[in-house]
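Example 3.
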Amino acid sequence: MRSFSELINKLLLTSSRNRKVDVLCDYFKNAPDPDRGFTLAIITNSLEIKNIPISKIKEIVRETVDEELFALSYDYVGDLAETISLIWPNKENGNLPQISKMISILKNINKNELTRKIHSFLSIANETERWALIKLISGGLRIGVSSRLAKTALAKFGEKKLDDIEKIWHGIDPPYENLFKWLCDSGPFPEIDLKNTFNPMMLANPLEDKDFINLNCNNFVAEWKWDGIRVQIIINDTKVKIFSRTGDDISLSFPEIKTLEKNMVILDGELLVGRNHIPMNFNSLQQRLNRKKVSLKHIDDFPAFVKLYDILYLNNDDLREKNWEERRNLLENWYYKNKNEFFDLSKIINFNSWKNLTAIRKNEIIDEQHEGLMIKRKSSPYISGRPKGHWYKWKKDPKTVDAILMYAVRGHGKRSSYYSDFTFGLWDGNQLSPIGKAYFGFNDNELKILDKFVRNNTIKKYGPVREVEKTFVIEVAFDSVNSSTRHKSGVALRFPRIKRLREDKPTSEVIQLCEFKLEFL
Amino acid sequence: MKWINENLYISPINTYIDPSKPVENAIITHGHADHAKPGHKNVLATKETINIMKIRYGENCAQNFQELTLNKTLKIDDIKITFYPAGHILGSVQVLAEYKGERINFTGDYKTKKDKTCENFEPVKCHTLVTEATFGLPVFQHPNEHNEIKKLLRSLELFPKRPHLVGVYALGKAQRIIGLLRQQRYDKEIFIHGALEKLCNYYVEEKIFLGKFLKTNLKDKKVYQGEIILAPPSSIKNVWSRKFEDPIICQASGWMSIKQRAKQSLVELPLIISDHADWNELTQYIKLTGAENVYVTHGREEAIVHWCKLNQINGLALSLSGREDEEDL
């Protein structure tokens, strides 16, 4: 564990991208197989690791550390894994196993010895190892290394093309010994099973106003950006596999999606729920996500279908080098030949000028179906990643509402001395009803103003929560509103953030909850 | 504490300990700016602390200075004052005040670990302990300082071309880091930012071995490849540091044990070296003194007060203002 923990510690503290690549290269050079392969899998999130909830680890610590002292420490440090690793009171001599061995021990550990084993590992570990181990088993290293960066380092380490690594990435498995052999020039380019391998998707860049000036609208097409989840569909001999944008196989959650197509084809589209290809809102789709078992009632209430955007493979032919227009033709041919209730074609929007498209975006958008517009260059091939100058997303404008600040909690880490998490509400008769929480959107100066207001206007404390005088109006921006049974107000905001402070505005001008529902729900 | 109040004011002799504003009579525990202020009428301190105050604030920063030697008792009216070494920086002391048989000890800032750049800490029994709590949370368990210094030396081997800029406080920390490097037989010259020079010279005058150190002069960048340069943390973050080519930013402080904090301050190589007592030192010392009452002057008071309660000791937070810890960045 030592070299692994030192690696991730270094990666955390290195802010330059190039330096991170160097640190990784150095590790790949010096670490043996299969350690380096497992480390790569951990960094790129490609490995199922025995997940032990951090609350369980906290319980183990709490057997020896006073609750209040732990709470004060956590409040100060701001990161649970780090708090536990620093506060751990027992120290024993010994060495932790190497990372590959550690992973297999964790995998085979049985429930009865789990606590004892974790306890002993944490006691043997040095502080950095302890931190790394807790991060590892509680899920999520959060060291600022994307899997793209890790692959960039692999490419540099083996002096190979990044694109080649991307192409095979989803078809190879930890500990990637064939990959490292090829990178070290002692093995062939790894072969992969195309029929079962996710291909990294092509993504769009946000459209900025200045882009308009430089783009000739005749070179582009537009489509709605549907408010579902982006998927890749691999069909082979009537079998359908569905992958999420990050390459997770989510086929089990959507067993109803079927086809009679025998040929191999790979499609790109948006997964939605709805009847007759009319999408329901995102809230309904959420009922279907992350379920391993799906009931017939669920399928009946929220039937899934896919709006097709693109085609990547047909009959084992790679179409990604073809331009968008050629691919669109092939996609339409495929669609008409294999038409069924589960597939729909994403419509192309006709427009003759940017002004025209601007008007369409404004007037024809359907709030609960569309996230905005997609603008695609006709001549673009299908390029994995987020290449510049090919696809643009033009999201709809956020909605805003003026609400009244009600409660505040202190933040963590850097913000541990600031009240930075805010609950706000609207009038419900002459009472206030909270509608959401936000902890970003404001700048440092606004945060200081809010913090000061909270400190000077607290009327009650509930543990860490402060209730404040209901006099401060804030403008809240959000992407959409869903109805919610979990919240008393009956609404849940998507991506709420504090857009502006409206100290000038009297609270009597803040709207009623029912007016809000009428307008946005 | 009838004869002493929460502002560390000893009423029978009209004297404050480490007052934050100019007063008539002040006892100063050590030379850090949040403890030693200029402008008092009469100052009682160790010879070293008085010298440090004069270096920092000028010869006339107080009207009268009175030296008190370590372990010698000074009787003022009915009060007896004795200084014991605090092990924090050169000249730092704990102040024991006795009145009608009651012993109150003020720790000032302290650490119990050995340090070759100052007198080592000596424990003192007392009825009431007035303690600091800069690192008063159980997450602070400072590692061995020699291992931390070895991290710096290993990094120099690994990156022989990169200048290593180490953020250190000018008084105490700078000299301790130099001393620790010398203990590891690092005998190259060490570069220092101009702001560190006077105090380093003073330590040498007091016969503390620092080896060869040189003020930086940024004409030739190449000179600094693979060298150690010490500078105040603020300089490391400002334009001054840009003059070095591809430096590794290091920082020596007790706060560096918190990785997220190191990351936020863009420190690439954190060195967990502190001149303050960590949690274990703080709590062990409280027990060792046998004190029935513990007053916490500054730092993470809540946790220490809570710990006292768990151990059947009366604890109280004084929350003195103006004690921004000098290591706190």
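The radius of gyration of chain B is 20 Å. The first strand of chain B starts at residue 9 and ends at 10.
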